[in-house]
Amino acid sequence: MAEILIRGAVAVVTMNQRRAEIAGGDVLLRDGVIAGVGTGLATSGRIVEAAGCVVTPGLVNTHHHLYQTLTRAVPGGQDALLFGWLKTLYPIWSRFGPDEMFVSAQVGLAELALTGCTLTSDHLYLYPNGARLEDTIHAAAEVGLRFHPTRGAMSIGESAGGLPPDSLVEQEAAILEDMIRVVDGFHDASEGSMCRVGLAPCSPFSVSRDLMRETALLARDKGVMLHTHLAENDEDVAYSLNRFGCLPGEYAEGLGWTGPDVWHAHCVKLTRAEIDMFARSGTGVAHCPCSNCRLGSGIAPLRLMRDRGVKVGLGVDGSASNDAGSLIGEARMAMLLARVSRGADAMSAREALEIATLGGARVLGRHDCGAIEVGLRGDVAVWDVSGVEAAGSWDPVALLLAGPARVRDLFVEGRQVVDRGQIVTIDLVRVVERQNRLAQTLRE
Description:
Layout: E1 4-13, E2 21-30, E3 33-38, E4 46-49, E5 53-57, E6 59-61, H1 82-93, H2 98-114, E7 117-124, H3 134-143, E8 146-153, H4 172-186, E9 198-201, H5 209-222, E10 226-230, H6 234-244, H7 248-254, E11 262-266, H8 272-281, E12 284-287, H9 289-294, H10 302-308, E13 311-314, H11 319-322, H12 327-342, H13 349-363, E14 380-384, H14 396-399, E15 409-412, E16 415-419, E17 422-423, H15 428-443
Parallel strand pairs: 1-4, 1-5, 6-7, 7-8, 8-9, 10-11, 11-12, 12-13
Antiparallel strand pairs: 1-2, 2-3, 5-14, 14-15, 15-16, 16-17
């Protein structure tokens, strides 16, 4: 693979141990790896001029439902809380199949790439009409993002006291069998891996205790990570108290769902004791500020979690509960919500950017990503701060969270995915046209 030198940036935000920022900085990519960081670097390969740009590590998305890009702004669910919103959308999602999963993943991944994301997880927990996890894995390979899909599941339908309709749940033996299949078939644990698979029963209100427990045992046997939704809103906590007689964090701990190989989405309603337990155990959290606002779930205790030592990354969540999939937008929202709940000095733009990069990589167990350092993977975002949205800025790094909404250039494993604001790995115009046709069919 030829060398690429990103040269002469206004600032290179490294997120290294010293959190160094290099004025007039260069980044050299070679064979998918960062081979040089500094000033005055040279190459015989390709040069990407970065004058007027800020260079950051690629952003990391720790929670998504890519299939939901087909169901944005669905009438009847837009003004509902979590449980009502889900009941509106379950019947629509039950009509999905492999094509819907593949195309919606392509669109969602492209949207993430355009907003600076190089590594994303995905939580796919329903498999109607022959859909399979690899529908999304193949989409990620075409778009070119580093991918951490999770084999989710729902096994407790309405007739058994769960939330989803019976038509969308699976038998638990079949779930575990397919979890083994996808891990054996697609998980790559090596450094620089483009695809690592996790296991992710949907939530305490849609799977049994047995499945949660068996999944944790299976994940540890296979050496993969665990993921689920937890303590998302008051309804979620009330369900846990009424059905299990304990708080969501306590429920997770009792089933083996804490530790450095586990991360939970949302965690809006964790108590201080639960937060301390997450910190002690090394359990991670995917903070989804825009979705939490959209569904009226509340403001997660981000400042407290960070201060107590909990690993936290950002998640855009599904586009049906967010409307968008902008990771740089999530970073800004995380900063604003921390400030509105704890004061103007509660979080800086740089800390929010750290959560969006290094924080997310740590949550996903990726010590080879998340920073611009020699030897780490070549995942780099180039942001143009020379336009009108950044005019007059004294601090282009701080302004990044309110400046350009899209990256100018994006590199994943040293390969260019976005060039001058355009996806170059797929024909996005045709993919969007196909997505809109599928959405129209669902509406009709």
